[in-house]
Amino acid sequence: MATSITIQQAAATTGLSVHTLRYYEKIGLIDPVPRQSNQHRLYRQEDLRWIEFLLRLRATGMSIQQMLRYAELRRLGDRLGSVSERKALLEQHAITLEADLLVLQDTLAMLRGKIAIYASQEEQLKALVDT
Q1: Concatenated DSSP letters for 5-56?
Q2: What pLDDT sits at residue 2?
Q3: pTM of the model
Q4: Residue 28: which residues within 8 A CB-CB, separation 6 or more?
């Protein structure tokens, strides 16, 4: 991949719209993206890695507000308070995800049980039709 890509290419790479990329930059979720002399944004690898991380957080239910707090802390650098609070945010999110996974696993087990019941009923009904 090139060392930097346009906003359209970044949108295609990340699956976000151009509008969303601009919005994320405007609200401070993404740091200001370097620009060419014509003011067109040029996304770097580090920008894309950060966006990928944000997308993973979002896909797992982290709110924009929490992501903004994490981004603010990240901008403070590797200071004890910043690192500790980022770690705490991620730990809390991991606990939430683990609880969500337990609910999903329980639901999946219930669905598999229902599917097994229907499979058994199908076999019984097919046997009746074949006789």
Answers
A1: E-HHHHHHHHS--HHHHHHHHHHTSSPPPPB-TT--B-EEHHHHHHHHHHHH
A2: 60
A3: 0.83
A4: 68, 71, 72
